[in-house]
């Protein structure tokens, strides 16, 4: 049977090994967390760019729609004036 001091030494070695494993796993988790934060930041930036682009395109489309509306209204009003004057 192993003596108490041998058991203590063996348990201390096991404890040291577990501590090292914990440090390795902890560092891996920290690295993964940093990578996830970077990906999230990239995704967020990409999403912001897409939203800005969509907003810009949407504004352009609204502007074009308004321009078409006013052009049509102006043409119709001019035609009505011409029609009224000619008849």
TrEMBL record:
The keyword Coiled coil applies. This is V-SNARE coiled-coil homology domain-containing protein. It comes from Acrobeloides nanus. The keyword Coiled coil applies. It comes from the Eukaryota. Residues 1-28 form a coiled coil. Keywords: Coiled coil.
């Amino acid at each position: 049977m192993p003596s108490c001091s041998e058991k203590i030494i063996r348990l201390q070695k096991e404890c040291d090994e577990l501590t090292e494993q914990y440090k390795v796993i902890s560092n891996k988790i920290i690295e993964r967390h940093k990578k996830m934060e970077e990906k999230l930041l990239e995704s967020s930036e990409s999403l912001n760019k897409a939203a800005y682009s969509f907003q810009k395109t949407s504004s352009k489309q609204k502007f074009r729609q308004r321009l078409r509306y006013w052009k049509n209204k102006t043409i119709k009003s001019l035609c009505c004036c011409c029609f009224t004057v000619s008849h």
